[in-house]
Amino acid sequence: MNIEKLVYLVEVAKTGSFSIASQNLFVSQSAISQSIISIEKKFGIKLFDRKKGNRAILTSDGEEIIKNVKDIFIKYQELIEKVQIINNNVNGKLKISTAPGFFAVLLNPISSIRDDYPKINIEIFEKPGQVIIEDILEERSDIGVLPFIKHLLENNDRLVYHNLFEAKMKLMVNKNSPLAEKIFVTPQQIVNETLITYDGEFIHWFKKLFYREFGIMNELFTTTSTDTLKKAVEENLGVSFVPAFNGVNYNLSDGVILLDIVDYDAVNLQYVWIMSSKRHCSSMITDYILKLKEELNS
After folding, report:
1. Could you read off the pLDDT of 44-85 as tens digits, one per residue?
2. What local confidence, expressed as pLDDT, does residue 82 receive?
3. What is the C-alpha separation between 88 and 247, in angstroms, rounded?
4. Distances in whole angstroms, Cα of residue 179 to Cα of each of 40, 104, 151, 235, 253
5. What is the tens place of the pLDDT at every residue in 92-107?
6. C-beta of residue 175 within 8 angstroms of C-beta of residue 255
């Protein structure tokens, strides 16, 4: 049995469709169907129930077989990567979806792994947390970096997540604000301010938690543009909650400062990196994450 047949089998199992698998792999539907039939004959079991509308549903036997096939396929991918490294021929793109402020930190580890992956190309997209998760599930990105969002990440068998670093929520204020005279601020001092909010799942969760405990703030507007948010604070239109961590770069002007928030445990944040549970964690991704952790701890 050649590896192409296993590729066809995995793709049909993933998509639940011979036609979609055919489109994704640029192979005729007949070729895929014949390959699956040949595997079924070789194993002596039925892998799929063919339904109307060209749907392909794994049988109970198929469910058991596909687990082992995926393991074999991962080992095959690891073998290809090892050969490419030996031949100094690893290429391709590493696509990362990330929360704002992380761009420079994510780029820095690339220079550290250039020797092993000389042809690597990285693409970074700054997006809100919910969109990052969608990017991973829809395979628009390989990995995502975002604050831990319990209700979206915990017990989600379509994703795997790993702790990356700790951060703190801080308050962005104009330097002419009365709050700017303080070394730190308390929730009681913040609640009477006008709030400008980044339109991300995690910030909305933090804001609701804050409101529940200390009262509702006056909100001016919500935006997905960090530049717009910073501009509004620079013009002293309000304050904003922003995560802060080693290496973060919001490119703040001299007219804006970040203040520590005290007497509130929820300001302690955990960032994670995520990927699809269906994806193979390549050696390139593993090495990249290792260098990224070193960068964050330096």
Report:
1. 888 888 765 567 888 888 888 888 887 777 777 767 666 655
2. 64
3. 31
4. 71, 29, 33, 15, 17
5. 678 999 988 777 788 7
6. yes
Please give the Cα distance from 144 to 99 (Å, whole number). 8
pLDDT at 199 exceeding the cut of 60:
yes
Nearest to 269 by CA among 159, 150, 172, 153: 150
pTM for this entry:
0.68
Residue at 284: amino acid letter? M
Token code pair at residue 221 = 């507007």
Give me the numbers of helices (H) and strands (E) for the chain, helices first please: 12, 12
Average pLDDT, the chain: 85
Work out the burial of residue 263: count CB atoms within 10 Å of its CB; fewer than 13 is exposed, 13-18 middle, 19 or more buried: exposed
Kindly report the number of other CB atoms within 10 A of residue 91's CB atom: 10
Rg (CA), the chain: 24
Residue 242 backbone zone (phi > 0: left; psi -120 to 50: alpha; other: beta): beta
CA distance 24 to 29: 11
**Predicted local distance difference test score (pLDDT) of residue 163:** 92
Contacts of 27 (CB under 8 A, 6+ apart): 8
Interatomic CA distance for residues 141 and 138, integer angstroms: 8
